Amino acid sequence: MLQQQLLLQQQQQQLLLQMQQQQQQLLPPQMQQQQHQHQLLQIQMQQQQQQQQQQQQQQQQQQQQQQQQGIFNLLLQQQLAAAESSTSLLQKFYILNKSLDAYQAALTYSNKQQQQQQQQQQQLQQEEELLLLQLQQQQQQQQRVAAAARKPLPPGVCL
Description:
Layout: H1 2-24, H2 29-85, H3 89-150
Helix pairs in contact: 1-2, 2-3
């Protein structure tokens, strides 16, 4: 759910950025530079928001892990109590084995979730860096075009 919100937010930001870039191409160079600075500020604010969301996700994950740990500890204690009350040593071993299997399965699932979330965070960071780089390259290109437009034409050359 939160991942879908992040993706939707990112798509909206990219669309807004494209629209702003198209509008900027019609503006004079000085206003283009002001617009670029405004866009960079927007991107920085978006990055801060995404970092806050990532921190919230990590906190939620830690809470879930702690809850899972508590539940499994409780289950393990119950299993041990049941094992101690049973007469057969083989039964005790079997109960303990089943408990450990369940704990390992839950731990594996939790680790996979963490890995997926880390990969998504890395992908988001890479996309942000790419957007920043594209914006900087476009700004440099527009500055070169503006500088060339301000240069006087050589003598004998007319438009």
